[in-house]
Amino acid sequence: MSKQKYERLFSPGRIGKLELKNRMYYPPMGTNICVGGEVTDRFLAYHEARAKGVGLDIVENANIDTAGGAGLPFGLNIDDDKYIPGLKKLANVIRKSGAKACLQIYHGSIWVKPGQRPVYGAELPRELSVDDVQFIIQRFVEAARRAKAAGFDAIEIHGANINGQTQFRSRVWNTLKNKYGGSLENRARFMCDTLKAVRKEVGKNFPLWCRTSIYEIFYVGDGKIAEYGVTLQDTLVHAPMFVEAGADAIHLSQGGFYDYAWQYYTMCPVEAHGIAPNINMVEQVKKVVNVPVLAAARIKPEAGEQALKAGKLDFVGFGRPMEADPDFVVKLAAGREKEIRPCIHCNNCIETLAWADGVACTVNPAIGREKEFEIKKASKPKKVVIAGGGPAGMEAARVAALRGHQVTLYEKSKKLGGQLIQAAVPPHKSEINNLIDYQVNQLKKNKVKVELGKELTAAEVKKIKPDVVILATGVKPIVPGEEVPGLDTLSNVVMAEDVLMGKKKVGDRVCIIGGDLVGCEVAEFLADKGNQVSVLRRSRFMADKMNPDMRMILVDRLKQKGVRLVPGVLYQAAADTGVRIHVRGGITSMAEIAADAMKNIIADTYVIAAGATSNTDLAEALQGKGGPKVVSVGDCVEPRRILEAMREGWKAALEI
Ligand SMILES: Cc1cc2nc3c(=O)[nH]c(=O)nc-3n(C[C@H](O)[C@H](O)[C@H](O)COP(=O)(O)O)c2cc1C
Ligand code: SF4
Q: Which of 265, 271, 561, 616 could form a disulfide with 428 if both were Cys (CB 3.0 to 4.6 A apart)?
């Protein structure tokens, strides 16, 4: 029984006067769906879904001063009394769902240094005077008054990750000459003064705490650490000061700078970081404070349970896991762990955060669109056939079956998963296998009939007479033609997917033709095996169609592993003596052209990773034949990411 397995996670806890039914919380997770800064119906539905199992729901950073720092375009605001009624509704919805409601309050500004990317801040940056700081603290006090009036059970002051108040603690960012900058003690003063002022406003019994970074790293662009803005040692001094100033708990996170990519990578660790990468530092902080410690960051249930048992922390946050599956804790409680839709730690939720339409999740199309994607029983069950067992086809099958339709899925290979199978092979991508397992289990659970090793044909459709056909037939790989003259004369050419699937061997020196996501990932896969790898790309930038933040991390890693990346390539001729290229990108002088522009890449094996084109064979065969309704989803419409495949699959099934 799951409750016994996670006995500690499901044991009650307390923060100050706040009684919590268990040790799990939903950490603040920005959504960018609060139009006009208001609590919207979408936002209510988002929290209603996620407050179901956890003891505590900490609502994302509400902006205390939109004029001074705008934050996200559709972020939540609390800088005016007009927001109180909406916030009241939100606190009630959270409590009705079973959790206690906490609001994180923050100043949506960030200081800008030369060479750093400017952000959403409303004004040009200038050095803060003591009066400026007092002004900001007063905004926190007013926001706290509003949060309490709205009925929140607790308030968290945001001082972690990336924003103005976080930077007070940083020896790199904080260059103030007044009492808020300089010494270790001065760098804690802003948070201490804010806590004291807010405590005075909300009273001594009201649950109040702060979030702070265990450490803040400054990178130098290629993943190397230049210096620490905040060290663990600083935090071991600052955390007790925050408690002394009135914090009932310490909520930990971590920050990283150079570019947003590195901040996100540090705040939201990925598979490359391992499980619960910061837990031992969290334990160090816990040892120096006498209040509960909360922490998230790639903590899985087993690791959380162990950490609680070992006394390393008091409450465990599940952020991205609950973005991916709002029923995460409910399913854990019921011992239905295999039914949890897994977060694959791709960080697309961070990348999409600033999109006009709000946050999106690769595996959960319903995030922030809970009502729009609600799965309701169909009024009349229909006979549905689906061609293709990749992410789009499986998602369509799952949702259609849940709606009560009679679903058969055809997959021409012997295995479900489609392109996910090869996508899970490169380094740090194995969590994609969890998504395959989840989808396969869902098909079983929801009694989808799966025909493996059988390709759906137009003749079969005619015979079965379904009401609806969903095509999720995926892609066919592109083999370059005249773009790479002479390629067809080479004997040592293999396809990227065959390399990943172990169907083809490569020699020591490998040249990859095509440097988008697949080409770069195959490069890392081979570099890790000790191959000497070059990647050629015609566009100016490597892997520029993938999530831009994760792209930067991947490209830096490839450089560190000695992969030769050559963007801006014009292929001249391929022959047994090598692939002759002209490099267009970055060439600025005649001397460079002479020295560098013409290259001959010699390799033992050439790997084709030149992208893919939609497989529309069945769509064409069914076209104009009358018969059932036909809908295409995923890559057979246009090759894109898992995110679009999952979304279109779900949506198509809702529309049957
Ligand atoms: C889309 C997104 C938005 C986030 N917004 C906030 C925020 O508003 N405030 C905050 O303190 N942390 C924010 N975080 C960080 C999370 O609270 C959490 O620390 C992080 O996701 C790591 O935990 P996890 O591995 O359980 O996801 C955000 C993270 C993501 C992915
Ligand atoms: S977008 Fe990726 S990282 Fe974010 S919750 Fe979804 S699966 Fe996890």
A: 271
